[in-house]
Design goal:
The chain is of the alpha+beta class. About 45% of the residues lie in helices and about 10% in strands. α18 packs antiparallel against α19, α19 runs parallel beside α21 and α20 runs antiparallel to α21. This is 4Fe-4S ferredoxin-type domain-containing protein.
Length: about 375
């Protein structure tokens, strides 16, 4: 099997680029995890064994090389109603429904199997660093991988590493920061919550993406406005990046798959959804939150409504207060009503106050101070 045969097949299947690297351990990532244990403790608490993935031999002892495929998740435009609420990388995610990318990936592994090559596709290997080691891209100060050749050298891509028991000649690594010297660290300055505290250094616990699907309590008051209208994920550091400007400026055709489900993801539907709706309409596409944590979706939707500053959401918020028992959802509804203002919000909050106690009551009193 020659590298050119693998490349040809990958391109035939619609992957944008492909590279090859060795099975060497990722020592730099070991150092990061060991030196920043507090910041990454939540990963291990959730049973995600990142350390195992730092040595590819732990995953496939007979592995000899790593093939990295590059897929572009933003080849088509997404409906405006979804942008600014959901990270683009999640809008056409088919890891559960297996409708398009999964089929192409399965076909690629079938091609390897037909040529007597075993493969494993680990989730816990450093995907972006593996791709950079395979010469497919360089890093931005925001920690994203930027392509060397495709997608107008943007970060609108997904690297997919595959460990194989066949030795391929590795490509020349490009493990470096590729940001232009004239860039004044726009991504760091624009990070709403300060999660990006220095070039290539992020505190994941402050990242809006982390907060949107892992935060255990109500969003802290001091960052509610900064989180803005994001419900699931965040693209802020990529949107302001000058390296992405060319790709983001394109006039792309609409993604019909995402358009077809866009109504399901409207903020009002998320705020009022029941478990059946979540299981059938939302979870198959955005699945980081389990079935017993729909409160977080509703809290995020309520917060986003408040940060739109659009009074059209007041009736939805008022109705949802009585629909929900979770104090985190009720608390965020109260905060959003205070942020939206208007007399009808004040009247609703005053009525809620009569039947509330504890943390919810505290949030209502805080919201009423906005009037």
């Amino acid at each position: 099997m020659d590298k050119k045969d693998v490349i040809k097949k990958a391109l035939e299947l619609g992957f944008a680029d492909v590279g090859f690297t060795t099975m060497e351990p990722f020592e730099s990532q070991k150092d990061i995890l060991n030196s920043r244990k507090e910041e990454y403790a939540w990963v291990f608490e959730k049973g995600i064994n990142l350390k195992k993935g730092l040595d590819p031999k732990n995953i496939m002892p007979n592995g000899k090389s790593i093939i990295v495929l590059i897929d572009l998740y933003f080849k088509e435009a997404f409906p405006n109603v979804l942008e600014g609420h959901f990270g683009r990388a999640y809008l056409d995610d088919d890891r559960i429904i297996r409708s398009h990318l999964s089929k192409r990936f399965k076909a690629f592994r079938g091609f390897l199997r037909d040529n007597n090559i075993e493969s494993k596709a680990p989730f816990n290997i450093p995907h972006r660093l593996t791709a950079a080691r395979a010469g497919l891209g360089t890093f931005g100060k925001n920690n994203f991988l930027y392509s060397n050749k495709v997608a107008l050298q943007s970060s609108c891509l997904s690297p997919i590493p595959i460990i194989v028991n066949y030795e391929f000649e590795p490509d020349e690594p490009t493990v470096e920061v590729g940001c232009p010297k004239w860039c004044k660290s726009t991504c760091i300055a624009s990070c709403p919550t300060g999660a990006l505290r220095a070039p290539n250094t992020i505190d994941p616990r402050k990242c809006i993406s982390y907060l949107s699907y892992y935060q255990e309590e109500i969003t802290p008051l001091e960052i509610r406005e900064q989180v803005g209208t994001w419900v699931y994920g965040c693209d802020r550091c990529q949107e302001v990046c000058p390296r992405n400007r060319a790709w983001l400026s394109q006039d792309l055709p609409i993604n019909e798959r995402v358009l077809a489900k866009s109504k399901d993801f409207e903020l009002s539907n998320l705020l009022h959804m029941d478990l059946k709706f979540y299981q059938s309409k939302i979870w198959p596409h955005m699945f980081y939150m389990p079935f017993n944590e729909t409160w977080r979706w509703k809290m995020n939707a309520a917060r986003a409504m408040g940060n739109t500053l659009d009074p059209k959401y007041i009736p939805d918020l008022v109705r949802a207060f009585d629909e929900n028992e979770d104090e985190k959802v009720k608390g965020m509804i109260s905060w959003s009503l205070g942020r939206l203002g208007r007399e009808e919000s004040k009247i609703a909050l005053e009525s809620f106050l009569l039947k509330s106690n504890g943390k919810v009551r505290e949030e209502i009193l805080l919201a009423l101070k906005q009037f």
